[in-house]
């Protein structure tokens, strides 16, 4: 949906949340803060049966940390995470797909919101009315699924900085170096706010 001007009310005296209220109040506040939507993909390899397993997850915590001397990005993962395990098993290599405001982006994001990677990839591959393409490159350093089409703004090929990974309660903050950037489409990135995907 198109962005709208919020209803602004006359400011009142601030209310202070108690320690018991703080988690719920913070969750309510963050509902109204927009977040970029991205899909992280990775692959794990089993030497015993020579089988490759593909993983993906949708994140709303994608951010840049630094741009010089090389781009550094970060995102948060709730643990345990099979996608994070796959990234670590592949020497920290993975892909990030920054989504745009095309309607295909909503479908791509929804496919991986619950960690159902297998079903998500099958759903994208069976789409008949779209131009979503899923590839599984078996060459090169970064062996992770690549999703392209109208719903993908850019693809970042990344290498995790293991010494910068931080565990905070039940989440892990992943910090990684961008080694390659593929621009697929033009336009604005997809955002998530108030439990809905939105476009600028």
Describe the structure.
- Helix 3 runs antiparallel to helix 4 (117-125).
- It is built from 4 helices and 13 strands.
- It has 200 residues and is an alpha+beta fold.
- It has helices at residues 22-31, 82-89, 103-111, 117-125; strands at residues 35-36, 38-46, 51-59, 63-66, 72-78, 93-99, 133-135, 146-148, 152-160, 166-168, 171-183, 191-193, 196-198.
- The termini are close together.
Radius of gyration: 18 Å
Give the SSE order as H and E letters.
HEEEEEHEHHEEEEEEE
Largest beta-sheet characterization: 8 strands, antiparallel
Give the amount of beta strand, in percent: 35-45%
Using DSSP, what is the number of strands?
13
Unreliable spans = none
Helix fraction? 10-25%
What structural class should be given to the helix and strand makeup? alpha+beta
Indicate the overall shape: globular
Instruction: Return the average pLDDT rounded to an integer.
Output: 85
């Amino acid at each position: 949906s198109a962005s709208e001007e919020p209803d602004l009310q006359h400011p009142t005296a601030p209310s202070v949340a108690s320690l018991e209220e703080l988690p719920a109040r913070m969750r309510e506040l963050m509902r109204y803060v927009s977040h970029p939507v991205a899909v992280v993909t990775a692959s794990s390899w089993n030497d015993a049966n020579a089988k490759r397993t593909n993983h993906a997850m949708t994140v709303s915590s994608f951010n840049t940390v630094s741009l010089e001397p090389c781009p550094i990005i970060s995102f948060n993962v709730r643990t345990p995470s099979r996608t994070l395990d796959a990234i670590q098993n592949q020497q920290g290599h993975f892909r990030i797909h920054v989504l745009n405001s095309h309607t295909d982006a909503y479908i791509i994001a929804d496919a991986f919101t619950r960690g159902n990677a297998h079903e998500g990839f099958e759903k994208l591959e069976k789409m008949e009315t779209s131009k979503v393409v899923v590839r599984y490159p078996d060459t090169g350093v970064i062996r992770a699924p690549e999703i392209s089409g109208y719903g993908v703004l850019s693809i970042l090929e990344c290498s995790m900085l293991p010494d910068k990974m931080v565990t905070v309660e039940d989440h892990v903050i992943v910090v990684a170096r961008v080694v390659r950037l593929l621009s697929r489409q033009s336009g604005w990135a997809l955002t998530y706010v108030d439990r809905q995907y939105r476009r600028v």
